[in-house]
Amino acid sequence: MRARLPLLAVGLFALSACGGNKVKGDGPPSGSSRIPDISGEVTPRPEPRSRYGNGPVYEVLGKRYTVMPSSSGYQERGVASWYGKKFHGNLTSNREPYDMYAMTAAHKTLPLPTYVRVRNLRNDKSIIVRVNDRGPFVNNRIIDLSYAAAIKLDMIKDGTSLVEVTAINFDQPPGDRPVRRTAGGPSGPISAQTAPQPAQTAPTGAAEHQVYVQVGAFGDRSNAERRLGALSLAGIKDAFIHEDRAADRVLYRVRIGPVADVVQYDVLVEELEGIGITDPYLISD
Questions:
Q1: Where are the domains of the chain?
Q2: For the chain, is the Cβ count within 10 Å smaller at the N or the C terminus?
């Protein structure tokens, strides 16, 4: 989706990210001989907040979005989409020309610019992109990637992918590791800190990982069984209890899957919302 809408605090800016499914033929312009150099990387560096596109509040299709005061601690798992030649050359939300061959992305609420690491949960390929645009304004999507970034994550064909997005912060000592979520909970931002590191890309032909949706983690097995029963009553199949004995105490994690693709994930999220479960979390094994 593209629109020119008022920011409640700072005037007008351009919303470029379409955020939907792959548009047929939305690759390189016809007759173009330019092929993106997918061997290149983005080098994260501290940058001041952009004068444009940083809210603090804006509205799209009747929904208000509040820009985060900081990207520190942001990590989220969900669905990534990509956008290409339809927007190539148009202004992004911080008024930079969109370059479909650059390693950039759009996000609804991260400060502009922010560098993030995006990991494809299916194949474990990982890239770093610079967020300089707003979007995607489509339900159940968390980030919109440039054409080149989507190529590197091997998601061009499907148009969408299940991913993990982690903000890169510059105030952490080298070697700090991200704090990963271990229990079921909200699929939104969670505590994570990471120092700038080169992107890591899995070898070509790497085996696909199984992806599951976790809908709870309990110390008492009876609570996990009650959650499992609620899923069964709702007609949600392929749910099971995974016993995690790695911690000091046993955790009973209720999971669904494996999830074959984004289409199945979207349907599952809608079914879960129908029974009041709004905090599914993606697990990749």
A1: 3-167, 211-284
A2: C
pTM higher than the cut 0.70: yes
Helix (H) / strand (E) element for 271: namely helix 262-274
- Of the two residues 201 and 266, the one the predictor is more confident about is 266
Is the separation of the CB atoms in 254 and 227 below 8 Å?
yes
3-167: CATH number:
2.40.40.10
What type of residue is 14?
A
DSSP assigned state of 139: T
268 with 230: CB under 8 angstroms?
A: no
Residues of the chain above pLDDT 70, percent: 73
Looking at residue 39, its amino acid is S
Top-confidence residue, 23 or 27: 27
| CATH 3.30.70.1070 is right for the domain spanning 211-284 | yes
